[in-house]
Amino acid sequence: MPPRKKAQAAKSLEATLWDAADELRGKMDSAQYKHVVLGLIFLKYISDTFAVRQRDLAALVDDPDSEYFMPTEDAKRSVLEDRDEYTAEGVFWVPESHRWEDLRRAAKQADIGQRVDAAMEAIERENPTLRGVLPKNYTQRELAPEAIGGLIDTFSRQDLASEEFKDLDVLGRVYEYFLGQFASNEGKKAGEFYTPRSVVQLLVAMLQPYHGRVFDPACGSGGMFVQADRFVAAHGGSRNDISVFGQESNPTTWRLAKMNLALRGIEANLGPKWGDSFHADAHPDLRADYVLANPPFNDSKWGGERLRQDPRWRFGVPPAQNANYAWLQHFLYHCAPTGTVGTVLANGSLSSQQNGEGDIRRAMVDADVVECLVALPPQLFYGTQIPVCLWFLTRNKAGRANGARPTRSRQGETLFIDARQIGHMATRTLREFSTEDIDRIAGTYHAWRGSAENGAEAYADVAGFCKATTTAGIADNGYVLTPGRYVGSEETEDDGEPLDEKIARLATDVREGFAKRATLQDRVLACLNSLAVSNE
Question: With a threshold of 0.90, does the pTM exceed it?
Fold first, then answer.
């Protein structure tokens, strides 16, 4: 019971902060306001991190038994304001007069926007990894000084203060919650920067990135990396067990990702700046152990006509009209020999025959790189009803007996999972997966691969849900990869009543129902006629 209360309290804090911030938005567009709010959350986080380190240093310089002990106030201050004492511990240096408390004291001043911009500029100058990342738009006409001051007051709550809460990750959770809320407000545009959390959790649960290089070449705001980091921690691993690489083509989204990962303390190589993964690959030599991504659905403006001879197109040149098969081949190109790919794509990728996509799909199946397809339910994404699926690819199905995750040989096999009936409506328009839903889908995949934990049930086909199929079986179906075609219909319980007798009984029930309705209708009409006569 106590853990449940704690979770409810955290949710309440996030929702309360959102309501307060949203009330201050006024008529400002949500897409603009997003950067204003998230920038302040980030500034609060690095100031709190700085304050924690400064508090620890203050205790050390006062301790006669510490090597940091300083006998005079000037000497103590020199240590507390020594930039290297912070950066050596992975803490961003926040210059004097630009710290959160400085802004809090000036929150009611008319020039608070200029002060926040100046703080962002000073922090970027002092921390090379943040240069060009932080928003500096706090003086725009649409943003009143009262709104900025109100946000600063909102984020100055005691339960968000590092000294009181002693949990700096709370601001990371607030940041993630706000990302989701802004995504909800922005609808279809949200896909540019946000993948719903339960979809990411499912991808991560299936890939299980315990150790190695994790790559997302369409990383948005970095949610895949946050969930991968959480997965490692939840399974007793260390953040140093994975190396994070990413790329994002939208400059504002790239900045959101940099801030999001910094909030989590995740060191990630997102390239020197934003860039297009197809035309300016930031990691050309990377071969990742795990590739996970949610690329733009059915992108028709990816510039494919300029990449006709690209070495990445091992299975066929993808059509310039749609990037789906360009993404799949880009992922495989960056996949290590024993690595795994997990990605979200539009359902059309499973069956399209247009512009050579069917030929590419056939070549991929025949090369035995397609490992698993999962059909997802509708309404998982903000602002779009496009049906989507998950693709899992690998360059080697031979299996391995050693290592952290032994697997069996799956050569010549592909797993199909139909999860279209799974999930629940979290809101009127948005569906989510529960922990149990994720465990069921991921558990089925790992049981089939032979990578399930000891004690897990052995894999078995389940009509209407999952089916392991041979490459020959896929060929018999014209290389269409729609899971529903393979898993069939869910088996219904046999009640023992012969079919012809059941049909006769149901037909009688229907006829009797019609007769009762006709009798009732005659009675109602008679009553109405009686009322009409009495009123004449």
Answer: no
